Amino acid sequence: MQENTERKQGGCRCGSITFETSGQPVLVEYCHCRSCRHSAGAPMMAWAGFKLDGFSFLSGEPTVHEPSPGVRRSFCGRCGTSLTLTDARFAEEVYVALAAFDDTDAPSPDIHIWRSERLPWLETTDELPRYVQFKNDEILE
């Protein structure tokens, strides 16, 4: 079987930090958790998860913040763009902010997670599965 080497690039708003992904994402999701909402300054965050060896920063060095034990978020210290999230529970993966990809054909989310923390005024009308917390947890709707 031939390895998928599809590459996509992205970066921060000011151009100080760039990254590249390769291969297909392991998971693409909308996250409604409070931590993602606060970090993004938005009602939810969209992420694409890649194996660690399928992601690299090409230029610049992001600022890293650890909002809770084992969870690390990276962002541009100059313009504030959210870039990545890693979680010790998923140690072989890195989650990349979908909005930080350069082109609009970045992967599309296929699930909603942390619907238990969704803002009550935000209603989504897609037909994607909605999980209480993580994928494989109880489906809410």
Indicate the overall shape.
globular
Q: Using DSSP, what is the number of strands?
A: 10
From the alpha carbons, calculate the radius of gyration and give it in angstroms: 15 Å
Mean pLDDT: 89
Number of helices: 1
- Helix % is under 10%
Most strands sheet: 7 strands, mixed
Distance between the termini: 37 Å
CATH architectural designation: Beta Complex
The share of residues in extended strands comes to 35-45%
Query: Largest sheet, order of strands side by side?
Result: 6-7-8-9-4-3-10
- For the record, the count of structural domains works out to 1
- Uncertain runs are none
Which class of secondary structure composition applies to the elements?
mainly beta
Fold-level CATH name: Metal Binding Protein, Guanine Nucleotide Exchange Factor, Chain A
At the first level of CATH, the class is Mainly Beta
Order of helices and strands: EEEHEEEEEEE
What labels describe this entry?
mainly beta; Metal Binding Protein, Guanine Nucleotide Exchange Factor, Chain A; single chain; seven-stranded mixed β-sheet; 10 strands; 37% strand; 141 residues
Task: Provide a short characterization of the protein structure.
By secondary structure, the chain is mostly beta strands.
